[in-house]
Write a structure and sequence with these properties.
- It is a single chain.
- The chain is of the alpha+beta class and 382 residues long.
- It folds into 2 domains: 2-216, Porin (Beta Barrel), CATH 2.40.160; 281-381, 2-Layer Sandwich (60s Ribosomal Protein L30, Chain: A).
- The protein is 27% helix and 35% strand.
- It has helices spanning 2-26, 60-63, 125-130, 231-263, 294-308, 329-350, and strands at residues 40-52, 65-75, 80-95, 109-123, 138-153, 159-173, 178-190, 202-216, 281-284, 316-320, 358-362, 378-381.
- Strands 1-2-3-4-5-6-7-8 form an 8-stranded antiparallel beta barrel.
- The longest helix is centred in the middle third of the chain and has 33 residues, at 231-263.
- This is Major outer membrane protein OmpA.
- InterPro entries: OmpA-like, OmpA-like_sf.
- One of its GO terms (cellular component) is membrane.
- Keywords: Coiled coil, Membrane, Signal.
- Residues 272-382 form the OmpA-like domain.
Length: 382
C-alpha cells in the first residue's frame, strides 16, 4: 500500500515539475525557479467534516465531526507547488435505517476513526492568470493528488485504500511570513471503507477547515529574472550567416575556375638550353706580381658563378703572360707560369671546379697581345 502511495506521489511531482517548466516558458515575466531550500511552507488547520456514503440518515449536525490537518509543501514557481498533507478525524458517524451487515439488529449508529495522507499538485490561479504579485492579499489555489486512506472500526477489520483528494485553498496574506487559509476538501474513496454492504461504489469525506501557513526558507518570494537581450547576438549571427553565404559563392566560383583550368589542354613546356656566349675573363696583375688584387678576385668570382658553373662540361685554357719591357725572357716565363697556376689554384680549391677542365698555357713575354706594357701583365681564361 505504501509503495503505491509513493509511486503516485512521484508521478504527481513529475507532473508538477513539467507544468512548472511550461508555465515559465509561457510567462512574459520570467521568475527564478526556487532552489531546494527556498519557498517552503508549513501549515496547520482544523475544521469540520462529514462522511458522505450510502448510509447518510441522521441529523447533519450529529454527523459533523472535527478534523485536524498538518501540511508541508514547496512552491516551485509562483503558480505551481506541491504539498504533503496529513488528515485525522476521530469517530466518524454514519446513521442508517437499513439493518444489514455490519450493523447488528437494533443498531442505527456506526463510528470509526479516519486518517489520511495525500500529496497534492497545487495551481495558484491568481498568479497563473493575473501574474505574480508578492503583496497580493487574496489568492485562490485549487489542488488535487493521490491519497492514502485508513479507517479503523472498533470491532471490524481496518481498511487501507488508495484514493484521490482534491479541493480549494483560499489564501489570505497576513504578512511576508504568515498566511491565513480557508480550505475546502473532498476525498473520493471506495464504498467498502465503511464496511457497508449497500451497493454503492464511492464515498466522500468532505471537510471545511481554517488554518495558518508559515513560509520557511531563506527566500520566501520569487525573484524576477529579466530576459537577456539577444539582439546583438542575433545581429552578429545574421552577419556571420551573410559572410558564410558570400564565401560559399566565392568558393563555387573558384571551383568553377579550377574545373575550367583542369579541362584545358596541357601546355607543352619549352626548355631552353643554356648556351655559353660569355666573353673570356681577363685578370690583370701588378708589376712583378703573381697574386690578384681584391678587385680582380671579384671579377674572377663573377666569371666563375655566371660562366664556369653554368657550363660544367666546357674546358678552358688559362693563358698567362708577362710584359716584355721589364725582366728577362726567362724571368718572365716563370712569372707567367706562377700567375696561371695561382688562378688555377683558386678555381680548384676555392670554387671546387674540376682541375681537368683547365689547361695552363704560360707564354712569358713572347706573346704580348696588347700595345701597352701594363696590359700584358695578364691571365686570360678562354
Amino acid at each position: 500500500m505504501k509503495k503505491k502511495l509513493l509511486l503516485l506521489t512521484c508521478l504527481s511531482l513529475m507532473v508538477a515539475s513539467s507544468y512548472a517548466q511550461e508555465q515559465q516558458q509561457e510567462q512574459i515575466v520570467n521568475y527564478r525557479t526556487s532552489r531546494i531550500g527556498d519557498n517552503w511552507f508549513f501549515s496547520v488547520g482544523a475544521g469540520g467534516t462529514v462522511y458522505l456514503g450510502a448510509q447518510n440518515s441522521g441529523e447533519f449536525l450529529n454527523r459533523l465531526r472535527p478534523v485536524a490537518e498538518l501540511s508541508i509543501g514547496k512552491w516551485i514557481t509562483p503558480s505551481v507547488g506541491v504539498r504533503l498533507q496529513g488528515v485525522y478525524t476521530p469517530s466518524f458517524r454514519e446513521y442508517s435505517v437499513i439493518h444489514t451487515s455490519p450493523f447488528k439488529e437494533g443498531e442505527m449508529l456506526q463510528k470509526f476513526n479516519y486518517m489520511g495522507v495525500h500529496s497534492d499538485f497545487m495551481l495558484n490561479l491568481s498568479s497563473a492568470i493575473g501574474g505574480y504579485k508578492e503583496d497580493r492579499v487574496y489568492e485562490i489555489i485549487p489542488y488535487f493528488g493521490p491519497s492514502w486512506s485508513h479507517i479503523n472500526l472498533a470491532d471490524r477489520p481496518t481498511y487501507n485504500e488508495i484514493s484521490v483528494a482534491g479541493g480549494i485553498i483560499n489564501r489570505f496574506r497576513l504578512s511576508r511570513t504568515v498566511d491565513a487559509n480557508l480550505e475546502m476538501r473532498a476525498i473520493m474513496i471506495h464504498g467498502r471503507m465503511d464496511h457497508s454492504t449497500v451497493d454503492n461504489r464511492l464515498d466522500f469525506p468532505v471537510s471545511v477547515s481554517a488554518g495558518i501557513t508559515v513560509r520557511l526558507g531563506r527566500n520566501k518570494d520569487f525573484k524576477v529574472v529579466p530576459y537577456p537581450d539577444y539582439t546583438p547576438y542575433n545581429k552578429r549571427i545574421k552577419s556571420l550567416e551573410d559572410d558564410l553565404t558570400s564565401l560559399e559563392g566565392k568558393n563555387k566560383k573558384l571551383q568553377k575556375e579550377l574545373e575550367d583550368c583542369n579541362n584545358k589542354p596541357a601546355v607543352e613546356k619549352v626548355v631552353t638550353k643554356y648556351t655559353d656566349i660569355s666573353s673570356p675573363c681577363v685578370l690583370f696583375f701588378g708589376l712583378n706580381k703573381y697574386k690578384l688584387t681584391s678587385r680582380e678576385l671579384t671579377n674572377l668570382e663573377y666569371f666563375v658563378v655566371n660562366t664556369l658553373k653554368k657550363s660544367p662540361d666546357k674546358r678552358y685554357i688559362i693563358w698567362g703572360a708577362a710584359d716584355k719591357e721589364t725582366g728577362t725572357a726567362a724571368y718572365n716565363q716563370v712569372l707567367s707560369q706562377k700567375r696561371a697556376e695561382f688562378v688555377l689554384d683558386i678555381l680548384v680549391n676555392k670554387y671546387g671546379l674540376a682541375r681537368d677542365r683547365f689547361t695552363i698555357k704560360a707564354v712569358g713575354s713572347s706573346d704580348n697581345r696588347f700595345k701597352e706594357a701594363q696590359l700584358n701583365r695578364v691571365v686570360i681564361i678562354e
